[in-house]
Amino acid sequence: MPDVTGYLPSVNAVLNGTSAILLSIGRRYIRRKRVAAHRACMLGACATSSAFLAGYLALHSLVGMTRYTGAGWLRPLYFVILGTHTILAMCVVPLVLVTLALSLRGRFIQHARIARWTFPVWLYVSVTGVLIYFVLYHF
Fold it and tell me: How far is the CA of 41 from the CAs of 25, 86, 90, in angstroms?
């Protein structure tokens, strides 16, 4: 079996970034009343975020926790981003599931109300996930 631990962090970052892009495009589509395109983007964001979560859990089951060893001004900034990212990442899963379920059931008024909260949280988690990757593996 090949060792995936070397490239899995990069794959996870790409999945997070792709999710952020799909979320942003999907939001633009719904503002322009392009419902089918919005749905496709949001389902794509769900798929990429789900693949990320599976990869994240696989990576950490294989290698454990990755410690940040940097110093200087980036260290406290990293931990602020990591802390907010972690808390919001735990909240985003149920938010996404409820938002998705409301949409699939055709309850669009309730979907839109909760999506106003889900979108910024999900986007923040996706973008900060990419930032955390770069700080951990490239700085």
Answer: 7, 24, 22
Do residues 111 and 5 touch, judged by C-beta distance below 8 A?
A: no
pTM, full prediction: 0.92
Cβ 78 vs Cβ 70: under 8 Å: yes
Distance between CA atoms of 72 and 43, rounded to whole angstroms?
40
Q: What is the pLDDT of residues 23-65, one digit of tens each?
A: 999 999 999 999 999 999 999 999 999 999 999 999 989 888 8
Range 106-117 average pLDDT: 98
Q: Domain for residue 1, yes or no?
A: no
Does some domain include residue 41? yes
In-domain check, residue 100: yes
- Indicate whether 70 belongs to any domain: yes
What's at 80, amino acid-wise? V
Element of type H or E holding 124: helix 108-138
- In 7-107, which ranges are continuous DSSP H helix? 8-31, 35-63, 74-104
Q: In 3D, which of 115, 64, 122 has the Cα closest to residue 89?
A: 122
Domain count, the chain: 1
Please give the structure tokens belonging to residue 120.
């910024």
Domain with 14 in it: 8-138
